[in-house]
Design goal:
Strand 1 and strand 2 form a beta hairpin. The radius of gyration is 45 Å and the shape is rod-shaped. The protein has 240 residues and is an all-alpha fold. It has 7 helices and 2 strands, in the order E-E-H-H-H-H-H-H-H. The longest helix has 19 residues.
């Protein structure tokens, strides 16, 4: 160690400097935080711990020579508690799907329209959706075109317009029994039958040829006679 007065090397056991005769001042350290304590201080300036008697002659901090202390009862420093409404890790996966949100506000912040687009691409998030009752018929048409497994949640079948039925049935003809066929216009029928021609039997005016009726009503006398004759010939053929 060195003399604090003349900086001469001083033996560890010396009480006075052999060069200048100055009294050797030993450094002291806080036993709690290890900070260097000012000479004569009774409490640590860093943590407020009460300081013990002067150090050993060798100037070794008391904290280094002290007896092992029992384990502290103070709780260990831990990371701050996470907020209750913390961002879900999955949020970053589709945050760019709609509107480019950057700040997390919770799943309930997603609108029903945004949810319809999300469920089309990520049906695995269905359990997080709280907008099922808020979906409109056009939202449901989009969802069911791509994810028909959610049909049991749909409560807007009666509100579907003809164009929505055409879009859904082009991809999912299994929902034909739920359709109000009277809502479809001719051009919507044309689009539908291009993809699902087997649904032509549901088109109003397309009667079964075996029932004796013509596909269109002919108000003329000749038309009625021809219709009756055709029906008679079909009936005769059945008994032949």
């Amino acid at each position: 160690m060195k003399c604090t007065s003349c900086s001469a090397e001083v033996p560890a056991s010396a009480k006075f400097c052999p060069e200048c005769g100055a009294k050797i001042v030993r450094k002291s350290f806080c036993p709690e935080c290890g900070a260097e304590a000012s000479p004569g201080a009774k409490f640590c300036a860093e943590c407020g711990t009460k300081l013990a008697a002067p150090q050993t002659a060798g100037g070794v901090p008391k904290a280094a020579t002290a007896k092992p202390q029992p384990a502290s009862t103070k709780p260990e420093n831990t990371a701050p508690a996470e907020p209750a409404n913390k961002p879900d890790p999955e949020w970053n996966r589709f945050v760019s799907e709609r509107s480019g949100r950057e700040k997390w506000k919770g799943w309930s912040d997603i609108s029903s329209t945004d949810w319809s687009f999300i469920l089309v691409r990520h049906p695995e998030y269905a359990g997080k959706c709280d907008k099922w009752k808020q979906f409109k018929s056009n939202d449901w048409a989009l969802i069911l075109c791509h994810q028909p497994q959610f049909a049991e949640k749909c409560d807007k079948w009666e509100e579907f317009e003809g164009i929505e039925w055409s879009l859904v049935l082009c991809r999912q003809p299994q929902f034909a029994d739920k359709c109000d066929w009277s809502k479809l216009k001719d051009y919507e029928w044309d689009d539908l039958l291009k993809d699902q021609p087997q649904l032509a039997k549901y088109r109003p005016g397309n009667a079964d040829p075996d029932d004796g009726a013509t596909s269109e009503f002919d108000p003329t006398f000749a038309g009625r006679v021809a219709s009756q004759l055709n029906a008679y010939m079909r009936s005769f053929g059945k008994h032949d």
